[in-house]
Amino acid sequence: MKTIQKKSQIGRSVTEMLGVLAIIGVLSVAAVSGYRTAITRHKTNDLIEDVKLAGFLVTADEMIKNLPEFDAQENGPALNLQGKFTPKTSYDFWVFKESPETYAIVALDVEENVCREAVTRKTDWLEEIRANGTENKCHDANDNDMSFFFNT
After folding, report:
1. Is the pTM value of this prediction over 0.70?
2. Is the dihedral of CA 48, 51, 55, 60 positive or negative?
3. If DSSP states are collapsed to H, E and C, what string results for the chain?
4. Which tens digits make up the pLDDT trace of 4-53?
5. Which phi-psi region, left, alpha or beta, contains residue 4 (left: φ > 0; alpha: ψ -120 to 50)?
């Protein structure tokens, strides 16, 4: 009588491979989500740093100190800070004087996710952070204007 030897199985079944792919897929989704959150926080930190730097500039620059108070009906005066400092971000920064001791740094065209993250931030040197004027809501597009108010 001949004995038949069974071949040992080599490799994996299709079901096992699909299970591995499903696990990799779930882990990938979590990693991409975490990466997006980290990038948003990084961009928000850069924006806050730029605003802080602009705030130091405002307190040191006599031309800015002598700005007349902002008149909402005339929509001015405001001063563009382009060329006065080198920001980390690509936003356009403006400054206006809201009262004799309160200034606002305005960042134009802020992305929605950075806007949402920034309005929740609390800092000891900023009095208030507003998005899009009085409505204080971030738009779904990349056209959010953010105002950062501080006292001198």
Report:
1. yes
2. positive
3. CCCCCCCCCCCCCHHHHHHHHHHHHHHHHHHHHHHHHHHHHHHHHHHHHHHHHHHHHHHHCHHHHCCCECECCCCECCEECECCECCCCCCEEEEEECCCCEEEEEEEEECHHHHHHHHCCCCCCCCEEEECCCCCCCCCCCCEEEEEEEEC
4. 666 666 777 889 889 999 999 999 999 999 999 999 999 999 999 999 99
5. beta
